Amino acid sequence: MGLWVGLEESGLNLITDYQGDALQVEVYSHDDSDMNSLNQNEIWAILEDSGGIMWFGTLGGGINKANPSTRAFGFYQHNPRNANSPAADNITALAYDAIGNSLWIGTADSGLDRMSLVTGAFTHFEADPASLTGLKSNEIVLLDVGPDGTLYVSTADGVLQYYDPEIPGFAPVSIKYMVIASDSETTAIAHDSEGSLWFSQDTGELLRLDSTSGQIGRFQLASSVLPGLEADMVVTIFADANGIIWLGTESQGLVRLDPASGEIKAYQFDGTSSGPSHNSITNIVSDNTGSLWLGTAGGGLNRFDPLTEQFNYYTTQDGCPQTGCLALPRMNLAPYGSAPAMGLRA
User: Fold this and answer.
1) In a 3-state reduction of DSSP, which class is residue 316?
2) Cα separation of 342 and 319, whole Å?
3) What is the pLDDT along the chain (346 residues), one digit of tens a residue?
4) What is the CATH number of the domain that holds 97?
């Protein structure tokens, strides 16, 4: 039905249609008088499960979910007297396991939860640095589930781990593949259509873990055109249906990588529609027209057409109803359902 935009302090915007530079937007925020509204306006994570239910991770309100037809919100919050509840209400990351029909929930300081969407049961995982199979930190930063159901976790100490149900427990990717420095911080993770895992590190490396061979490929981001790119942090990764890897960087704009040729191209703010409205790109999703939607940390919402290489910018004047749409310190995006008029898809 559209594109969900989660804001740091202003709840949710649902973009239901766009015509050129104008947006049609529905606004959802906490309302004390409405028990079916969001229970917290600070949104940090969004995803859609295979049944079309939308899930939202909040800071302070636990996990909210939205009925796809009524848009009524329900929520799960920590209850110290009930072990079958979230470990905490500060939710930093969400990931969906379609094979196990379960929701992985990362918290700011209380570890990791797995919620069965069949039974509603919660399983809690807490840090145990002394254990070879424990989480290395309770501060969960990134979560991603591969096509085979494998969960990958990055915590505040920078170690990238994966969950092995045979243990059961967690193991560092660096130990499994013997290639990644254990003190390197993972800054973004994503899977491509072939199941390979892409991840970036604060050392400036972009790596691909091949799903078939288990081999690691390294991609050098620095170039004579953008010598500072290698030192800049990649904060989000998106793999499109054509195998192109798109990178959102902290200060170098949007970067296109063709893994087959190794060709790198950057799109940076230049005051025209040939560049994004801001060089800090925080989130990337696609729609079924092939356009990319970009969240920024200072320039609102962008739409990019990879064929024409042109950007459209959306601010309050174009339908974004929140002033935060002009200067977002954090924006989360998630396509929802399928609306022919808008062309967005999950």
Assistant:
1) helix
2) 15
3) 578 888 778 888 888 877 766 788 888 999 999 999 999 999 899 988 888 888 999 999 999 999 878 889 999 999 999 999 999 999 999 999 999 999 999 999 999 999 999 999 999 999 987 888 889 899 999 999 999 899 999 988 777 888 988 888 888 776 445 445 556 788 899 999 899 999 998 877 889 988 788 788 888 776 655 666 766 789 899 999 899 999 999 999 999 999 999 888 999 999 999 999 999 998 898 887 788 989 888 788 889 999 999 999 887 666 554 433 333 334 455 666 543 222 222 2
4) 2.130.10.10
Distance between CA atoms of residues 80 and 342, nearest Å: 43
- Asked whether 123 and 111 are in contact (CB, 8 A), the reply is no
Query: What's the per-residue H, E or C state across 305-332?
Result: ECCCCEEEEECHHHCCCCHHHCCCCCEE
The H-assigned helical ranges of 125-238 are 173-177
Q: Is 324 helix (H, G, I), strand (E, B) or coil?
A: helix
Residue 242 CA to its chain's centroid (Å): 20
Exposed/middle/buried for residue 40 (C-beta within 10 Å: 0-12, 13-18, 19+):
buried
User: Given the structure tokens 């400036």, which residue do they identify?
Assistant: 204
Query: Residue 144 and residue 135: Cα distance in Å, rounded?
Result: 15
| 74 located within any domain | yes
In a domain, 149, yes or no: yes
Say if CB 163 and CB 154 are below 8 A apart.
no
DSSP-based helix, strand, coil % in the chain, nearest 5: 5, 45, 50
Q: Is the dihedral of CA 60, 62, 67, 72 positive or negative?
A: negative
d(CA 208, CA 200): 9
Question: Does 121 reside within a domain?
Answer: yes
Query: Residue 49 belongs to what domain range?
Result: 31-183
Residue 69 counted as domain residue: yes
Given a contact cutoff of 8 angstroms between Cβ atoms, the answer to whether 344 and 294 are in contact is no
Number of domains in the chain: 1
